[in-house]
Specification:
globular, alpha+beta, about 15% helix, single chain, 4-stranded antiparallel β-sheet
């Protein structure tokens, strides 16, 4: 699996739309997420997990915990879009179900989009302004 681009809107500490270009970051072969406490490093990793599986790991998805940014306007939807390439036998659809396998030797490339308000993966709206 190769991550290409992550776009966050009103997710975690990011009130506006933010993009992470993993292709540009990994052009040297390796990159590091670093910054001061509260800069959003874990939120970037949470957004990748949310884009793949519709949930974040551990206690951050517990009841009463909001994935929605407190800094976003009320009318801005919370959204995570993850563009990735998955090679091999198949890829995961947004619902987490396996999709049909690509032709042998071909890679499946598809954007993943998660939007608040879909099923059990809805980020809490507690604390919205």
């Amino acid at each position: 699996m190769r991550l290409h681009r992550l776009t966050l809107t009103a997710f975690g500490p990011f009130g506006a739309t933010q993009e992470v270009d993993f292709d540009a970051l990994s052009s040297a072969g390796i990159f590091l997420l670093h910054g001061p406490t509260g800069a959003g490093k874990t939120s970037v990793l949470d957004a990748v997990c949310y884009g793949l599986y519709g949930a974040v790991p551990g206690a951050r998805q517990s009841p009463g915990t909001s994935l929605r940014s407190d800094h976003a306007p009320v009318d801005r939807p919370t959204e995570v879009r993850l563009e990735l390439t998955v090679g091999g036998a198949g890829s995961r659809s947004p619902g987490g179900r396996p999709s049909p396998a690509p032709r042998r030797g071909a890679a499946a490339s598809r954007p993943r989009r998660r939007r608040a308000g879909c099923g059990s993966t809805t980020p809490s709206t507690a604390g919205r302004r």
